[in-house]
Amino acid sequence: MSAEDRGRDEYVDTCRGVACVLLVAYHAIGASVGSGLHLAGDSFWRNFADGLIYFRMPMFAFLSGVVYARRPFAAGDGTHFLLGKIRRLLLPMLVVGTAFVFVRSNIPGVNVPAMNWATLLILPVAHYWFSESLFIIFIVVMILESLNLLGDLRKFLIVLAFAAIMQLTVSPPPEFSLIGANYLFPFFLFGLGCSRFRIAKIDFLPIYIAVLVGTSSYAIAGILGYVAPTDRVSIIALLLGVSACFSLLLSGWKNRTLAFIGFYSYAIYLFHVFFTASTRMFLYSMNLKNITALVIVATVAGVVGPILVEMIADRFALTRTLLLGRAGLAGVKTRWRRMHVRRASPGMITSASPAVCRKEANLEL
């Protein structure tokens, strides 16, 4: 079944697929010299991973803003909105994050010093900070929506400018992923603006690409040591991330494979590290030392494995809630609708049409 058949936006899912592959490849390589494949700073794959910092999480935040604008917070719906975000974002973060800490602390070959599991909500481990940062962003957006500060373009641009200034000048504490929320908020707002106000114009696509090429070239030069390294919180990184998001979204590029991957983006985000690490350990035991092969195989495993996890977990109310953050019983109805989408005639608006299925889907990530 194609992404369109499931009621999804295939353009957005293609972008999500790109972001997923980049995220998984980053952790397959290793976030630093001391993790993953332990690659030296002068290797191609090490430089490649370092360059991904400007694209990975900004793209996820941007796409979250794009999708949020299609199903925004409504006045008087605060309790339902917050409970939905807690279930969708914080519950899987705690459940899967705890499992990750347990595995990383007890399995030979990946073990690290013991961590205090009770502080996972205060100081999320690894990449799970993104879930809590996005939750905080949704709280802020709910407040801004209630104050009608995102309702027209002028007010929105003021908020966007303020968020960009805050990102570039303020460094919040790491507790509760406040620093991550501050970093991602401008990208989320740019995505929201694309959906709500069409701030990204197709006529300006050559300009976005030119900015992307220029900022990327400077960032690459920094990685290679020709100029000072570009920090991920900088005007160069902000322009690079936004221009990359605009260019990819406006390109109109659709790819069924990437869209399929993007459909499972949340599960891939949550579970990919289990599969990249275990695959790497298995390949080491088989005495495979080719770095390129290790990266490719671990990346494929980090994409395919979580998809299988979601397919299994989605069948049961308890696992779909704890592991995927979805409403237990609602999933049965949603799957039934998706199964019948293909029976509707093109253009026919039925209870199983993409227009209705889109309302049923939970699309934060």
How would you characterize this protein structure?
The protein is an all-alpha fold and 365 residues long. The chain has one domain. The protein has 15 helices and no strands. It has helices spanning 10-29, 44-51, 56-68, 78-106, 129-146, 153-169, 178-196, 205-223, 235-250, 256-263, 265-285, 291-313, 317-322, 330-341, 354-360. Helix 3 (56-68) packs across helix 9 (235-250), helix 4 (78-106) runs parallel beside helix 11 (265-285) and helix 11 packs across helix 12. The longest helix has 29 residues, at 78-106. The protein starts with 9 loop residues before the first helix and ends in a 5-residue tail after the last helix.
Summarize the structure.
With 365 residues, the chain is an all-alpha fold. The protein contains 15 helices and no strands. α1 (10-29) packs across α2 (44-51), α4 (78-106) packs antiparallel against α5 and α5 packs across α7 (178-196).
Salient structural properties:
mainly alpha; globular; disordered C terminus
Topology:
Blueprint: H1 10-29, H2 44-51, H3 56-68, H4 78-106, H5 129-146, H6 153-169, H7 178-196, H8 205-223, H9 235-250, H10 256-263, H11 265-285, H12 291-313, H13 317-322, H14 330-341, H15 354-360
